[in-house]
Amino acid sequence: MVIIRDAHQDDLLSILNIYNQAIVNTTATFDLTEETLEQRQQWFSKYGSDYPLIVATIENKVVGYCCLSAFREKAAYAKTVELSVYVDENTRGHGVATKLVNEILLRAKQVGFHVIISGITKGNDSSIKLHEKFGFEFIGSFKEVGYKFDSWQDVLFYQLIMD
Asked: What is the pTM of this model?
């Protein structure tokens, strides 16, 4: 059974491993080199009550995580956030991402966010379907903005305006 809960400091190594899988094997992130635990600790420190970071566990093992981050630093963007979701490569296709996104959207509503943005690399059809299932709409793309795996990557932007 999948359990969704707040991320804890003890989850950092698992979160790091999941993220590094994405760096090495996917275009879901444009990082090109694996991160260190120290880098993930600095990243972790940005999350808390206003910017939730949650994990999915199966049998007490972290198998995915999801977070809301500041979209831009200027004050007028305060009610707009960016969503990120990553799932362990051995657990994909089992509904973990759906459970994570469902919970993060509930938390976004509780905090009072108005707009949620997701940048999805073109070709990541499972992420596109996931976002569309929750009502995200395609709002545009940036062409060839990332270079990874010896080719230019487009980023598609999806947006959800909260009720």
From this structure: 0.95
